[in-house]
Amino acid sequence: MSSQFPWAHATHPDWRMSASLCLAQIERASRVGAGAGATLGFLYLTDHHAAEAADILAFLRERTGVTHWTGAIGVGIAAGTAEYIDEPAIALMLADFAPDDFQVFSGATPPPERLARTPDGRRAAWTALVHADAATPDLADLVHDMRGKLAGATVFGGVSSSRHPQTTIADSVLSGGLSGVVLSENVAVASRVSQSCQPIGPVHRVTESAGRRLNRLDGVPALDVLLRDMGAPDMLQRRATPAGAPTMPAAVQMLQGTFVGMGSGDAFMHGDYQVRPLIGVDPHERALALGSDLDEADHVVFCRRDRAAAQADLIRACTSLREQIESEHGGMERVRGALYISCLGRTGTLFGGPSAEMQLVQQQLGDLPLIGLYANGEIFKDRLYWYAGVLAVFL
């Protein structure tokens, strides 16, 4: 195989036609038989093909000779500068990792032990691409536990957005739980997360909260802090009701596009925090209601989610990734392939129109093999994200 992973994508109502078109692209890219030298296939399907997923997998395995496959099924998938949303489509990429440097896992096949070593002495469970079924109970806890099974620090992936019971691929088509592939220390991976938001103020310490209710920040009522960060600290006085709270129209307008980034420690320095929607206010207690529990988060930052913020944050993530690759790996020409898991909620107009998000990624990183999934939740490190984009590059 060439230094870059051969990859392909196609859309057609007949899965045989799509799969055949993909294999023809692979053969042209590699200038040899489809799958020659490949040991692992990455495969993403839209759920228009979910019922035929097992047939597609068998067809690709037979035609390429590649035994091991990992991937997921969703409402949308991505490839290159294109996105395929709610239409029949296939995207695949073939890698030539050494057989001892990866292991496909699922509920039936456990990953390597955390302290396992490859024959050359490197750590066998270093990174992992993880796909999950959204119907799995305690999914966030399972993702956290998966990180603990690795000797390295990187977990990346996403939650299937399939409307069909078939949701993930790990050497077979599966439903439920986690699956994916564990990679050894010999496989270099660089990854970043983009939140599609930008902070509108400083990071604040949580001083009083309960479940999804955020009462006080830095010792001040949370609503007051939000208004100050939004540049409207006098809104309570200027547009107050007799109870001393903003009018309902003002509060609704204030909430539109406002999110809360939650985390602890120095997570905010690296953009590594979870973003949840702000869903309401308690005007009398001047408290805020969030879209999920705060859990162990002890700091928050208020964010705006709009086109400019989404584009700026994705550029930030790509720039940071590119700088790491140039400083640690000798430049972008060392990139062999990439996976991009983005939230299904980021499609449409958030980035300016169809495929705008994928086009922005390739503008920032160059023309590289790139496929991915539009997910129902994104996985990065030991957390489950919403509204995020997770980019992983193989070097």
Automatic annotation (TrEMBL):
<dbReference type="Pfam" id="PF10442">
    <property type="entry name" value="FIST_C"/>
</dbReference>
<feature type="domain" description="FIST">
    <location>
        <begin position="37"/>
        <end position="221"/>
    </location>
</feature>
<dbReference type="InterPro" id="IPR013702">
    <property type="entry name" value="FIST_domain_N"/>
</dbReference>
<protein>
    <recommendedName>
        <fullName>Small ligand-binding sensory domain FIST</fullName>
    </recommendedName>
</protein>
<dbReference type="Pfam" id="PF08495">
    <property type="entry name" value="FIST"/>
</dbReference>
<dbReference type="InterPro" id="IPR019494">
    <property type="entry name" value="FIST_C"/>
</dbReference>
<feature type="domain" description="FIST C-domain">
    <location>
        <begin position="222"/>
        <end position="382"/>
    </location>
</feature>
